[in-house]
TrEMBL record:
Protein location: Cell membrane
Pfam families the record matches: Ni_hydr_CYTB (PF01292)
Organism expressing this protein natively: Siccirubricoccus soli
Co-factor requirement: heme b
Presence of keyword Ribosomal protein: no
Transmembrane segments annotated in the record for this chain: 12-30, 42-65, 92-113, 147-169
Entry protein name: Cytochrome b/b6 domain-containing protein
Main subcellular location: membrane
Keyword annotations: Cell membrane, Electron transport, Heme, Iron, Membrane, Metal-binding, Transmembrane, Transmembrane helix, Transport
Domain Cytochrome b561 bacterial/Ni-hydrogenase: start-end pairs: 4-179
InterPro entries according to UniProt: Cyt_b561_bac/Ni-Hgenase, Cytochrome_b561_oxidase, Di-haem_cyt_TM
UniProt keyword Glycosyltransferase present: no
Length: 179
C-alpha cells in the first residue's frame, strides 16, 4: 500500500498539533474570567489567534503541495461509498481550515481588537487592521466562526472515527499511509 510522502505526513501532523491547540482553546476562552484587567484572558486570545493564523499559513502551503503533487491512490479494496465518505470529509476539512481562521481574523478586526499589542501574532508581529470596529458585522462573523468550530469538531469525529474503523474493524492498516 502506497504511503503519503514525508512532506505530506509532516504537513498532516503539524496540522493536528495546531488544531489540538486552536480548537480547545477557542471553546474555552468564553469561560475564562479574570479580575486582572483581562490579563489571563488575553493570553488565551493570543494563543488561540496565533495558533489559528499559523494553521492558516500551514494549510495554504499544504494545499499548494497537495494540488501540485497529488495523493497516493487509495487501495483498490476500499469500496466506493467509503472512498466517497473519506474524500468528502477531507475536502470539507480543507475548506474549513482555510475559512475558519479568516472568519476569526476578520471578526477580531470588526470587534476592534486586531492582532496587535497583547494579541499580536506570535506575541510580537503586529498584523494590519482591515476595518474600523463594526459590532453588527463582528457579531455575524463570530456566529459563523462558532458554527465553523462545531462543524470542524464533527468532521474530526468522522475523520478519526474513520481511521479507527479502518484500524479496528477493517484491519487494513490505512493509518500506516500517514505515519
Ligand atoms: C482553524 C483555526 C481556528 C479554529 C478551529 C477556531 C475555533 C474557535 C472556536 C471553537 C471558538 C469558540 C466559539 C464559541 O463557542 O462561540 C472560537 C472563538 C474565537 N476565535 Fe477562533 N478558531 C480558529 C482561528 C481563529 C483565528 C485565526 C482568530 C483570530 C485571528 C480567531 C478568533 C476567535 C475569537 C475572537 C473567538 C471568540 C472568543 C470568545 O471571546 O469567546 N479564531 N474559535
Ligand atoms: C489523531 C488524529 C488523526 C489521525 C489518526 C489521522 C489520520 C489520517 C490518515 C490515516 C489519513 C490518510 C487517509 C488515507 O489513507 O487516505 C489522513 C488524511 C487526512 N487528514 Fe487526518 N488524522 C488525524 C487528525 C487530523 C486533523 C486534526 C486534521 C485537520 C484538522 C486532519 C486532516 C486530514 C486531511 C485533510 C487528510 C487528507 C489528506 C489528503 O489526501 O490530502 N487529520 N488522516
Amino acid at each position: 500500500m502506497e504511503s503519503y510522502s514525508p512532506v505530506s505526513k509532516w504537513f498532516h501532523w503539524v496540522t493536528v498539533v495546531l488544531m489540538a491547540v486552536a480548537l480547545p482553546v477557542g471553546f474555552v476562552i468564553q469561560h475564562v474570567t479574570d479580575k486582572q484587567e483581562g490579563a489571563t484572558k488575553m493570553v488565551f486570545y493570543a494563543i488561540h489567534e496565533s495558533a489559528g493564523v499559523t494553521l492558516f499559513l500551514v494549510v495554504l502551503a499544504r494545499l499548494l503541495w497537495r494540488l501540485s503533487r497529488g495523493a497516493p491512490p487509495l487501495p483498490g479494496s476500499i469500496p466506493a461509498p467509503l472512498r466517497l465518505a473519506a474524500n468528502t470529509v477531507h475536502h470539507a476539512l480543507y475548506a474549513l481550515l482555510l475559512l475558519q481562521p479568516l472568519l476569526g481574523f476578520f471578526a477580531t478586526n470588526a470587534w476592534g481588537f486586531p492582532l496587535q499589542g497583547r494579541t499580536a501574532y506570535l506575541g510580537f508581529i503586529e498584523l494590519p487592521k482591515f476595518m474600523e470596529a463594526n459590532e453588527a458585522l463582528a457579531g455575524q462573523l463570530q456566529t459563523l466562526h462558532t458554527i465553523g468550530g462545531w462543524t470542524i469538531l464533527v468532521l474530526l469525529v468522522l475523520h478519526v472515527g474513520g481511521v479507527v474503523f479502518h484500524q479496528a474493524i477493517r484491519r487494513d492498516g490505512l493509518l500506516l499511509r500517514m505515519v
